[in-house]
Amino acid sequence: MRHVAATAPPEIAAVGPDRLTIRGALTFDTARRASAEGLRVLTASTAKRLEIDFAGVTAADSAGLAVCLVWLARAERDGRELRFANLPATIRSLARISDIESVIDRA
What we know:
The protein starts with 10 loop residues before the first strand and ends with a helix. Helices cover about 40% and strands about 30% of the residues. The longest helix has 16 residues, at about 60-75. The chain has a single domain (about 25-105), classed as 2-Layer Sandwich (Transcription Regulator spoIIAA), CATH 3.30.750.24. About 30% of the residues are buried. It has a 4-stranded mixed beta sheet. The protein is α/β, with parallel strands linked by helices. It has helices at about 30-45, 60-75, 90-95, 100-105; strands at about 10-15, 20-25, 50-60, 80-85. Helix 1 (about 30-45) links the parallel strand 2 and strand 3. The chain has 4 helices and 4 strands, in the order ββαβαβαα.
């Protein structure tokens, strides 16, 4: 039996030359597609410094944290600075207990 996602992937959009916004769930059900879409939007941007605003995220779990780490790794590989604004408390808590909060805050 194939697993069907219970929620649609979040929408990730450029809202300025150096700012992205994410809305919707960032969970196990949506992480794969969210990661790919985020990488596509990051790659399309030419800004050296980018901020992703998570204020519109409605749900998040450890897969959401993994997506953040994927995006950070891509930004670093591309020689860019990536910052996160309004991270969901769930992602921040998971980063703290995983002892990687400094990685997320560096962003």
